[in-house]
Amino acid sequence: QAKQVGRNNYRYYSPEMNRHAEERIAMETALSRAIENNELFILYQPKMDVMSNRISGMEALLRWNHPVFGAVPPQRFIRLAEEVGLIHSIGYWAIRNACRQNREWQRINPARMKVAVNLSARQLGDDKLIDNITNILAETMLEARYLELEIAESAVMADPDKAIAVLNALRDIGVSVAIDDFGAGYSSLAYLKQFPIRAVKIDQSFVQGVPFSRSDAAITKAIINLAHSLECSVIAEGAETQQQFDFLRDNDCDSVQGFFFSEPVSAEHFTDLLRVQANLHIH
Ligand code: C2E
Ligand code: MG
Ligand code: MG
Ligand code: MG
């Protein structure tokens, strides 16, 4: 028994193996309708400046709530979207909405901040990336310097020469780039020097090991020093405790993001955080 999935794509099932495959197809179909059905939304997590202890930016984190599948973890639906080619529509939806939201925050908050949006490997390879980002910035009236793209080290290293070209093009239109999950991939230092990047994000697997794991502490310090010597800012992600925060501050990390300060929250809740911080009178 064969069932057609998309173009010229036949899959064969035996009765034992098909439950999993059918759920996947159902999820793929559901994901293809997630935008029109208003099932996607974005949470924002503050990035805290270590010296001032104030919010200095935010990361947009995509969420998908489906009536049957429930809250599907981003790791799962982003990977599915990558595999079936839905990542472009979903990814640009996320960038557009994050830009629009940041523009809105700029109207009420004089302290302007960058919004960071994640970009997957396949998005990085999109020939229309620069044109589409340019159009989204024009449409949402957000200045390019207030958009940052977070690209995982592993995505950059999948095709480093191509990545250098894309990162240069992003820099030319004024959008900044942070290397995400740094330390978990396999960058050669020779390449790292050639990437026009503003910031490096230390992978949470190391951050969560400090200060007690000697190797995680050593790696974290080495990444901070490396980033600074390349004139990049360093941000630690996944900080959950006071001890982790103290270690990062004492070792000159520039910013920290993690449950220690705040989980990812709705745009409305984030507005409250900004209001408290700025003592704003937003009506
Ligand atoms: P990421 O970019 O590395 O995001 C950091 C993840 O760590 C987020 O998971 C965040 O909720 C989580 N996190 C933050 N602080 C803490 C902490 O203190 N402790 C722990 N245990 N976790 C913390 P989330 O939201 O589940 O996102 C997972 C991944 O999905 C992201 O990893 C990113 O790679 C991807 N993703 C999310 N939104 C988008 C998007 O709009 N586009 C693309 N292409 N990928 C996205
Ligand atoms: Mg990220
Ligand atoms: Mg990360
Ligand atoms: Mg991660």
Can you tell me about this structure?
- This protein has 283 residues and is of the alpha/beta class.
- It is 46% helix and 22% strand.
- The strands form two sheets. An eight-stranded mixed β-barrel has the order 3-4-6-7-8-9-10-11, surrounded by five helices. It has a two-stranded antiparallel sheet with strand order 1-2.
- A hairpin with a 4-residue loop joins strand 3 and strand 4.
- Helix 3 runs parallel beside helix 5.
- The longest helix is centred in the middle third of the chain and has 22 residues.
- The protein starts with a strand and ends in a 5-residue tail after the last helix.
- The structure holds ligand C2E and magnesium ion (MG) (3 copies).
- One magnesium ion (MG) binds next to strand 8.
Compute the number of strand runs: 11
**Poorly predicted spans:** none
Strand content: 15-25%
Cα-atom radius of gyration? 20 Å
- For this structure, the quaternary state is single chain
Question: What is the residue-averaged pLDDT?
Answer: 92
Number of helices: 12
The dominant shape is globular
Give the H and E element order. EEHEEEHHEHHEHHEHEHHEHEH
Bound molecules: ligand C2E, magnesium ion
Distance between the termini: 61 Å
Question: Which percent range fits the helix content?
Answer: 40-55%
